[in-house]
Amino acid sequence: MKLYVQTQYFENYGAHDWSGEGACPQYWKPKGGGDYFYQLGDQTPPDDQLDELVQALRDRFEYSNDHARNYMVGYSVVADDFMTDFEKSQLEYEGVVTYPAVMLQPLMAQAA
Questions:
Q1: N- to C-terminal Cα distance for the chain?
Q2: What is the mean pLDDT of the chain?
Q3: 98 in Cβ contact with 90 (< 8 Å)
C-alpha cells in the first residue's frame, strides 16, 4: 500500500513585474499540481496515524512564498500498482512514463 497525495500549484502573476520594494502585488493563478507517493508497506495505518503521517510529510510538498504556492488538496491510500491519471496518459500516448509521481523518502526515526 502507498499514500497518494495530490497538490494544487499557484503562481503569483503579480510578482512578475514586482520591483521587490513594498508589498508584492497579489494575483494568484492555479497552474496544475503535483502527485506524490509515500510507501506504507503491507498494512494501512489507522486513520489517526495516517493523519499524523500526512502532517509530518506536508513540508516535503507544501510551500508558500511571494511567487508560488503549492498546497495539498487531498490524499488517499492506494495499491502499490496504482498509477496517477498523468502516468496513465503518458503510458497510453508515449508508451513510457517519463514523469512519474514523486516518491517521498521515508521519515527518519527520531532520536531517543
A1: 28
A2: 90
A3: yes
Residue 98 is classified by DSSP as S
CA distances from 110 to 58, 107 (A): 17, 9
**What confidence category does residue 109 fall into, taking pLDDT thresholds of 50, 70 and 90?**
low
Residue 3: count of CB within 10 angstroms of its CB: 20
pLDDT of residue 25: 74
Q: Please state the domain extents for the chain.
A: 2-103
Alpha helices in the chain (DSSP H): 47-57, 85-94
- Residue 65 C-alpha cell reads as 512564498
Q: What angle do CA 40, 42, 44 make, to 5 degrees?
A: 60
Give the CA distances from residue 26 to residues 6, 30, 57, 62, 65, in Å, rounded to whole numbers and listed in that order.
Answer: 24, 13, 28, 19, 11
Looking at residue 18, its amino acid is W
